[in-house]
């Protein structure tokens, strides 16, 4: 099959990774993009698309899901959908073929994780504020997609707007409102939303228009696309492909200006229209564009609220209602004192206070826990790890006392005069004292093949003894782990499973909060059977998200 127009180019000025999780061929001519980015929640359908750039040929595609999950199929286009039904590492591989020969092989590695425990608790009514999510006014289908698939994208997109930009909770409320009545696919709970009211169908319809070279089709100007339901003509103004235009104060003049906005879009080149389509079709870039639009609406000089920080804006009821209203109807020249919010704006305002959004997009600021003076362990690897390099916290039992472990890390000399290369980032005592012995930027020698990516925490005591886990130790450990998760963007989840064997240890590739025994089950048992993972993870999440 001939490569379609919409898969021939990455938007000008964008990297493929700004659209979704991506892998580029060494020659730069082919790119595999996942609509969702790792980590991905179990039981989620993941869509993949291959781009063939600069006229690169592609006739067929051989898709493979590599062990331990296995699947294989051939397609005559660059699209593939896979439902992740198992936790662990998912490896997606596609051979791009021409004349039966493989031109290139593209591979993505993604981590499949457990469902968000806080969201599941809200859906079932297990977590406060009590009552199942639907009874609280939330929609389980929309909430599941927004929290599981887009939470990280929303936080990153909001952060990109700066201190005086948009708060992630406001962006989440807009995305929630829009996707509520534009689900990704048909669902029995939304049986009344069919056909063109399905988001995927909208994208396919506009793609067909662009791929048939019908670039003047007026539906291109009418159809809103993607998670945040943004029109292409609006997208053109945000990325400066078309002139930013606001509606006049006089209502009878607005139809004329709206027509100008449409015509400005229709005057764009085919390449520009395809670029805008690709920005809107992928959730990551759609949410980014939505954040830029909301920030622009908020920060217009004199007419709106440019002096408010994102936090202050979130506390300003009228500002939230007005900016949401203009997101829905278009920016106007109406002075701030005269503009009135619509029902849409009021509903978005209510969503910013809803118990099914606040826990996920209003993180409670966590201060660094009190610690004893830093004591440098001599055995470690000096490094300069960035936040993106760290994705796991590994819990250990020291199999000794607090002071004894500190002394051992400071001088790990064996009876024969040799030294053991061992250290850890932190040690926690039964009374809750914390000592740091290796800087986070540096690599501690504590969990073998997870050293480079992990933060190691030793808990004084013994894995086989239930009295290791005192209340004071658990309180300090919870505080420390919650702070580290927030500070370094580590997922506060505990994946199940463990490495298969020493020879196949690298196949264990989980992120989040891990036990030493998961990494080295052949010779480690800590933190042991007496450590209550469910209670611990729940307490960490409550500390981070403020759910009590």
Task: Explain this structure.
The chain is α+β, with helices and mostly antiparallel strands and 548 residues long. It has 3 domains: 5-113, Immunoglobulins (Immunoglobulin-like); 135-361; 380-545, Peptidoglycan recognition protein-like (Lysozyme-like, 3-Layer(aba) Sandwich), CATH 3.40.80.10. It contains 17 helices and 18 strands. Helix 4 (199-211) runs antiparallel to helix 8 (270-281) and helix 6 (232-238) crosses helix 7. The N and C termini lie far apart (55 Å). The model is unreliable at 127-131 (pLDDT under 50).
Number of domains: 3
Q: How many strands appear in the DSSP assignment?
A: 18
Indicate the mean pLDDT: 90
Strand content: 15-25%
Uncertain parts? 127-131
By secondary-structure content and strand pairing, the structural class works out as alpha+beta
How does the overall form come out from the CA principal axes? Answer: globular
The termini sit apart by 55 Å
Helical segment tally? 17
Strand order of the largest sheet: 3-9-8-5-6
Largest sheet, described in full? Answer: 5 strands, mixed
User: Helix amount, in percent?
Assistant: 25-40%
Radius of gyration of CA atoms, rounded to a whole number: 26 Å
């Amino acid at each position: 099959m001939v490569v379609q127009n919409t898969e021939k180019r990455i938007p000008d000025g964008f990297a493929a990774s700004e659209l979704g999780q991506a892998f580029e061929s060494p020659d730069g001519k082919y790119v595999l993009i996942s609509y969702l980015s790792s980590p991905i929640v179990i039981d989620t359908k993941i869509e993949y698309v291959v781009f063939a750039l600069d006229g690169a040929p592609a006739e067929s595609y051989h898709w493979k899901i590599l062990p331990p999950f296995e699947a294989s199929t051939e397609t005559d286009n660059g699209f593939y959908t896979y439902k992740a039904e198992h936790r662990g590492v998912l490896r997606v591989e596609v051979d791009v073929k021409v004349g039966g020969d493989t031109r290139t092989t593209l591979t993505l590695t993604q981590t499949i994780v457990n469902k968000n425990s806080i969201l599941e608790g809200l859906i079932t009514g297990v977590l406060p504020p009590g009552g199942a999510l639907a009874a609280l006014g939330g929609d389980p289908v929309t909430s599941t997609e927004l929290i599981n698939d887009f939470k990280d994208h929303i936080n990153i997109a909001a952060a990109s707007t700066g201190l005086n930009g948009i708060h992630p909770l406001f962006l989440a409320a807009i995305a929630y409102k829009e996707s509520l009545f534009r689900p990704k696919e048909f669902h029995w709970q939304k049986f009344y939303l069919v056909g063109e009211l399905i988001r995927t169908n909208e994208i396919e319809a506009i793609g067909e228009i662009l791929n048939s070279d019908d670039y003047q089709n007026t539906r291109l100007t009418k159809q809103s696309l993607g998670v945040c339901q943004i029109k292409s003509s609006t997208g053109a103004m945000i990325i400066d492909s078309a002139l930013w235009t606001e509606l006049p104060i006089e209502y009878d003049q607005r139809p004329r200006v709206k027509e100008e906005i449409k015509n400005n879009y229709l005057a764009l080149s085919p390449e520009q229209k395809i670029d805008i389509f690709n920005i809107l079709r992928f959730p990551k870039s759609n949410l980014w564009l939505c954040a830029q639009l909301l920030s622009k609406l908020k920060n217009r000089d004199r007419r709106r609220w440019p002096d408010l920080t994102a936090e202050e804006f979130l506390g300003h009821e009228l500002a939230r209602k007005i900016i949401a209203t203009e997101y829905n109807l278009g920016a106007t020249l109406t002075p701030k004192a005269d503009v009135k919010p619509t029902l849409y704006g009021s509903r978005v305002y209510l969503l910013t206070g809803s118990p099914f959004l606040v826990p996920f997009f209003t993180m409670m600021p966590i201060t660094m826990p009190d610690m004893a003076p830093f004591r440098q362990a001599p055995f470690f690897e000096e490094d300069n790890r960035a936040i993106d390099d760290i994705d796991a916290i590994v819990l250990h039992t020291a199999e000794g006392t607090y002071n004894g472990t500190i002394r051992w890390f400071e001088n790990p000399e064996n009876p024969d005069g040799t030294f053991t290369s061992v250290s850890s980032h932190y040690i926690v005592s039964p009374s809750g004292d914390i000592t740091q012995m290796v800087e986070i930027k540096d690599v501690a020698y504590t969990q073998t093949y997870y050293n480079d990516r992990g933060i190691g925490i030793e808990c004084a005591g013994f894995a086989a003894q239930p009295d290791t886990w005192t209340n004071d130790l658990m309180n300090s450990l919870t505080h420390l782990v919650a702070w580290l998760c927030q500070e370094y963007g580590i997922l506060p989840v505990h994946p199940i499973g463990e490495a298969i064997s020493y020879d196949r240890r690298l196949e264990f590739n989980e992120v989040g909060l891990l036990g030493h025994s998961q990494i080295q089950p052949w010779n480690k048992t800590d933190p042991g059977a007496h450590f209550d993972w469910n209670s611990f993870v729940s307490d960490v999440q409550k500390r981070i998200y403020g759910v009590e």
